Amino acid sequence: MTIQEQTPLEPGNVSRRAFIKMVIASGAAVSASAYMFRGPTLMGQGSLPGAVERLMTLNVNGQMRRVDVMKQETLAMTLRYKLGLTGTKLGCDRSECGACTVLIDDVPHYSCSILTHTVRERKILTIEGLERPDGTLHPVQQAVLDEQGFQCAFCMSGFIMSTVGFLKTNPKPTREELAHGISGNLCRCADYDKILRSMMRAAAYTRQTTT
């Protein structure tokens, strides 16, 4: 019998490929056994402390929506790619342009910088939820339509949502107050004069509907 046959498992006689196969096989066996032999008490337990449940219910535009969410997923991504609410735009994706603005409990927020799992108990409103059930546009939407306040309109939904939120706190703003109130939104076409004119008309329309 040769020396190689007497010591087949010595490290020097095991190829690198064979060693890697052995490691992978042993790891798979351990994982499989852990799954097969876990007890019923373990399977019945909830998430570990600090863990985030992926399947959750969100209150979006007055509807309870069930959605599978990763722990690092932003609200903007969930709205657009999981719920199909593409009115929420992704511009800078770092809280600078305001294109992704939505209302959370009536307050404007950049949805690109909010993790979805942090708003599961709150009310989320996107531009799709502004229209009334009978098809009537929200006063801010109607004002934008009447004034033709945007050019490319990529930033439009963010400006509209910011204005809706601002007018809830100041329904009768001056032009300067309104400009400051929605200054967190940027227009790539830089047509701010038309935008402000539209939003001032929106403020007037909003007051008419509440009186």
3D structure, described in words:
There is one protein chain. By secondary structure, the protein is of the alpha+beta class. It has helices spanning 3-6, 16-36, 40-43, 75-82, 139-147, 156-169, 175-181, 192-210; strands spanning 55-60, 63-68, 101-104, 107-110, 123-125. Helix 5 (139-147) crosses helix 8 (192-210) and helix 6 (156-169) packs across helix 8. It is elongated and about 85 Å long. The termini are far apart. The model is unreliable at 2-10 and 30-45 (pLDDT under 50).
- What structural class do you assign from the helix and strand content? alpha+beta
- Low-confidence parts: 2-10, 30-45
The mean pLDDT is 85
The SSE string, one letter per element, is HHHEEHEEEHHHH
Our count of helices gives 8
Short description:
This protein has 211 residues and is of the alpha+beta class.
Topology:
Blueprint: H1 3-6, H2 16-36, H3 40-43, E1 55-60, E2 63-68, H4 75-82, E3 101-104, E4 107-110, E5 123-125, H5 139-147, H6 156-169, H7 175-181, H8 192-210
Parallel strand pairs: 1-5
Antiparallel strand pairs: 1-2, 3-4, 3-5
